[in-house]
Design goal:
The complex is a heterodimer of chains A (301) and B (157).
Chain A: H1 13-28, E1 39-44, H2 50-61, E2 65-69, H3 83-93, E3 96-101, H4 106-113, E4 118-123, H5 129-143, E5 150-154, H6 161-170, E6 176-180, H7 189-197, E7 202-205, E8 217-220, H8 231-240, E9 256-258, H9 279-297
Parallel strand pairs in A: 1-2, 1-3, 3-4, 5-6, 5-8, 6-7, 8-9
Helix pairs in contact in A: 1-5, 1-9, 2-9, 3-4, 5-6, 5-9
Chain B: H1 2-9, E1 16-23, H2 27-33, E2 43-51, E3 55-63, H3 69-72, E4 83-88, E5 91-97, E6 103-105, E7 108-109, E8 125-131, E9 134-139, E10 145-147, E11 152-153
The chains are: A alpha/beta (301), B mainly beta (157).
Chain lengths: 301, 157
C-alpha cells in the first residue's frame, strides 16, 4: 500500500517538521516542475473553494497535470456508483488521488483500495490534515518556532475539526492552550483527557477578551448557526465572539490571528488592517504545504 | 439437589461447548456474534436463569462444536464475564476465560451516522480501547468511539 495522508496521526513529528521544511523551499521558489508527466486526480464529492483550488494550483506549480471533478452531479456517482468502484477506476488512471468526501472515513477506505497515494482533503467532520499542516507552517512562520507557544482557540471547539487536529499536532511541541468557547461549544472531554495524558496545560473561558493579551496565536473559528437548537442562543453567542480592532490594544507584539476561513462575522473587517491579521497569508501558505505533501508522498522530496 | 434442578432447566450435552454467565440482556447478541442462527448443531439456550453474580443470566450449550479462541473472544464485547466450558463425554475438560480482542472486525455497527461504513458496503473495523471496566471501540475509518451503551451487533439477517 503506498503511503497516504489521511489523518494527522499518519505523520510522525519528524515527518511533520520535514514537510514544513519542504514547504518553506517551495515558498522561496514557487514553480519547481519536478512532477512533469505526472497526473493527479482531484476528486471532490462535495464543494470546496480554497482546498480544491490550492491543491490544483499546487499540482500545476509542480508541473503535474490535474483531472477530476468538483461535484458529483455530472459523474456516475449520481447514478449510484459505489465509492469503491470510483476509487478503483480513478487509481488506475493517475499517479495520486486528492479527495474530499462528506462521509467520515471515506478517505481512509479509499487509501486501502487505491493503488496510488491518497491525500484526504476533508472527510466530513473528521480529518483535514493539509489544513493542520498549513496551520503549523503558519504558526512557525509567524513565531519563528513551534515550541512553548500559547495557543488560544476561539469559537466552535466542540465540532470544529480544525481545532481538534491542530490540538493533536501541536501536542508534539509543548504548547499551552486557552479554549475560548460558549458553554454549548466547549472542547470535548476526550481531547482534554488527551492533553491531561500528555501533561499539557489548558485553561477554559467563555470570554473572548479574558486571555487575549496572554496569547501568541489566536486561532479563530466560525460559530455555525446550525449547531444551535435555539436561534436566540445563536444570536447572543454570535456577537460575543466577534473580534474587533479595538480589542487588540494590549495584545502581545508577536500575536497573530489565524482563521481557517471562510469567516462570516467573527472577525470584523477593521482587524484586517492590523499587524495581527494573518489569515490571508495563512491561506496562501496552504499552497506551499500542499506542494510539499504531494512531492513528499510521491517520493520527490 | 441443586445440580439436578439445573439439569432439569438446561439439559447437559455429551460433547461441545457451554457458554455460561452471559448477562441475560446479552444472550441474543451472543447468538448473533457467533452466527448460531446458521448453526445446524443441537443448541440449547436458557435465558433469565437465576444467578448469584449476575441476577439473571443466560446459558448457551452447543453440542459437538468447539470454537477457536479468536472467535469466542468476540463475545467479550457483550459478555466480558462469560465462562467457556469445553465438554467431552459429559465432563468439563477445560475452562476458558475470554479476553478482550485488540481488533473487532465486522461484528459491531459504528455509532456515527456519518461514518462511511454506514453508507457503503464496507466491513466495520475497530480498535479496542478499555476505559476502566468499560470497553470502547475506536472506528478505524471515522475515528469516532462507539461505547458499550451504543453497541449494536450487525446481525446475520
Amino acid at each position: 500500500m503506498p503511503k497516504s495522508l489521511i489523518s494527522i496521526h499518519d505523520f510522525t513529528k519528524e515527518e511533520i517538521i520535514h514537510i514544513l521544511e519542504i514547504a518553506s523551499g517551495f515558498e522561496k521558489n514557487k514553480s519547481q516542475k519536478i512532477l512533469e508527466g505526472k497526473i493527479i486526480a482531484c476528486i471532490f464529492f462535495e464543494p470546496s473553494t480554497r482546498t480544491r483550488l490550492s491543491f490544483e494550483t499546487a499540482s500545476n506549480r509542480l508541473g503535474a497535470r490535474v483531472i477530476g471533478f468538483s461535484d458529483t452531479d455530472n459523474t456516475s456517482i449520481s447514478k449510484g456508483e459505489s465509492l469503491k468502484d470510483t476509487i478503483k477506476m480513478v487509481s488506475n488512471y493517475v499517479d495520486m488521488i486528492v479527495m474530499r468526501h462528506p462521509l467520515e472515513g471515506a478517505a481512509r477506505y479509499a487509501s486501502e483500495i487505491a493503488s496510488v497515494p491518497v491525500i484526504n482533503a476533508g472527510d466530513g467532520a473528521n480529518q483535514h490534515p493539509s489544513q493542520t499542516l498549513l496551520d503549523l507552517y503558519t504558526i512557525q512562520q509567524t513565531q519563528g518556532k513551534l515550541n512553548n507557544l500559547t495557543i488560544n482557540m476561539v469559537g466552535d471547539l466542540k465540532y470544529g475539526r480544525t481545532v481538534h487536529s491542530l490540538l493533536q499536532a501541536m501536542s508534539h511541541f509543548s504548547p499551552k492552550f486557552i479554549f475560548t468557547a460558549p458553554e454549548e461549544l466547549m472542547m470535548p472531554e476526550e481531547y482534554k483527557d488527551f492533553l491531561d495524558e500528555k501533561k499539557i496545560s489548558y485553561t477554559e473561558t467563555s470570554s473572548l477578551t479574558e486571555y487575549l493579551d496572554d496569547t501568541d496565536i489566536l486561532y479563530m473559528t466560525r460559530v455555525q448557526q446550525e449547531r444551535f437548537s435555539d436561534p436566540i442562543e445563536y444570536e447572543k453567542v454570535k456577537n460575543v465572539y466577534r473580534l474587533e480592532a479595538k480589542m487588540l490594544r494590549n495584545v502581545r507584539d508577536n500575536m497573530k490571528i489565524l482563521h481557517p476561513l471562510p469567516r462570516i462575522n467573527e472577525i470584523a473587517t477593521d482587524v484586517d488592517d492590523t499587524p495581527y491579521a494573518y489569515f490571508y497569508k495563512q491561506a496562501e501558505n496552504g499552497m506551499y504545504i500542499r506542494m510539499a505533501i504531494i512531492a513528499y508522498l510521491l517520493g520527490y522530496k | 439437589m441443586k445440580i439436578n434442578e439445573k439439569h432439569l432447566i438446561v439439559s447437559a450435552i455429551k460433547n461441545g461447548t457451554v457458554l455460561d454467565h452471559i448477562p441475560a440482556s446479552s444472550i441474543f447478541k451472543v447468538i448473533d456474534i457467533l452466527h448460531l442462527t446458521q448453526d445446524n448443531n443441537q443448541i440449547t439456550i436458557g435465558s433469565n436463569l437465576d444467578s448469584k453474580s449476575l441476577g439473571k443470566k443466560g446459558i448457551i450449550k452447543i453440542a459437538d462444536r468447539f470454537f477457536a479462541d479468536e472467535e469466542i473472544n468476540k463475545i467479550a464485547l457483550v459478555a466480558p464475564q462469560a465462562t467457556i466450558n469445553i465438554i467431552k463425554n459429559f465432563e468439563v475438560i477445560e475452562k476458558k476465560i475470554i479476553s478482550i480482542p485488540e481488533n473487532v472486525n465486522g461484528i459491531v455497527k459504528c455509532v456515527n451516522p456519518m461514518c462511511v461504513t454506514n453508507h457503503q458496503d464496507i466491513e466495520t473495523r475497530f480498535i479496542t480501547i478499555s476505559k476502566g471496566s468499560d470497553i470502547q471501540l475506536l472506528c478505524h475509518y471515522c475515528e469516532k468511539v462507539t461505547d458499550s451503551k451504543n453497541l449494536k451487533i450487525i446481525s446475520d439477517k
